[in-house]
């Protein structure tokens, strides 16, 4: 193996370790609470040393910020794709479907954490700009155009938040991820109604 290949392999392993840390921490934060979970417990959950954990993240706050930044980057990629397309009712339908699917695929566990740790999340995200609502606003404008009536903008914003709302509604129930995605899609369809065709979820690869 060449030196370049060794570096590439090391980077891939490091990236996977960071992803594993984020998911383990998220599970513990959701189950036990953010404040009640220590960095030591996260390391033990993964079977690594605290030193190895601190090599990738120097605090619980850093883990959460990394997780939310990853989710925001995925939304930004989707927004940039929509902005590059011709504005049509079919685009609005496809874009909303992709947004719902992305929210469900990458955001369900994050949303469950947020629902269970409101105070901690407010502290971690305090004074940070460019959050989810800014992206919801941009998405609504891409779906409707810049001059849509307020009522239509609110309906579309509610549709964009349908997965978030379904996660909140599912707390304390036996709802699985697939149930949440189904209900969120149905709710979004009802909300956009006569504005454009029902959101079309992308076909799984």
Please supply descriptive tags for the structure shown above.
elongated, 75% helix, 2 domains, Arc Repressor Mutant, subunit A, 10 helices, 205 residues, mainly alpha
Description:
It is built from ten helices and no strands. The longest helix is centred in the first third of the chain and has 30 residues, at 3-32. With 205 residues, the chain is mainly alpha-helical. It starts with a helix and ends in a 13-residue tail after the last helix. α1 (3-32) crosses α5. It is 75% helix and 0% strand. It has two domains: 1-58, Arc Repressor Mutant, subunit A; 60-205.
Write the layout of secondary structure elements.
Elements (H helix, E strand, L loop, with lengths): L2 H30 L6 H8 L3 H7 L3 H24 L5 H28 L1 H8 L6 H13 L5 H11 L1 H9 L6 H16 L13
State the gist of this model.
This protein has 205 residues and is mainly α. The protein has helices at 3-32, 39-46, 50-56, 60-83, 89-116, 118-125, 132-144, 150-160, 162-170, 177-192. The radius of gyration is 19 Å and the shape is elongated.
Strand content: under 5%
Total number of distinct structural domains:
2
| Straight-line N-to-C gap | 32 Å
Question: How can the largest sheet be summarized?
Answer: none
Name the structural class: mainly alpha
The topology string of helices and strands comes to: HHHHHHHHHH
How many helices? The count is 10
**Approximately how much helix is present in the residues?**
over 70%
Number of strands: 0
Radius of gyration: 19 Å
Q: Average the pLDDT over all residues and give the rounded result.
A: 84
| Low-confidence residue ranges | 3-10
Instruction: Give the CA-based shape.
Output: elongated
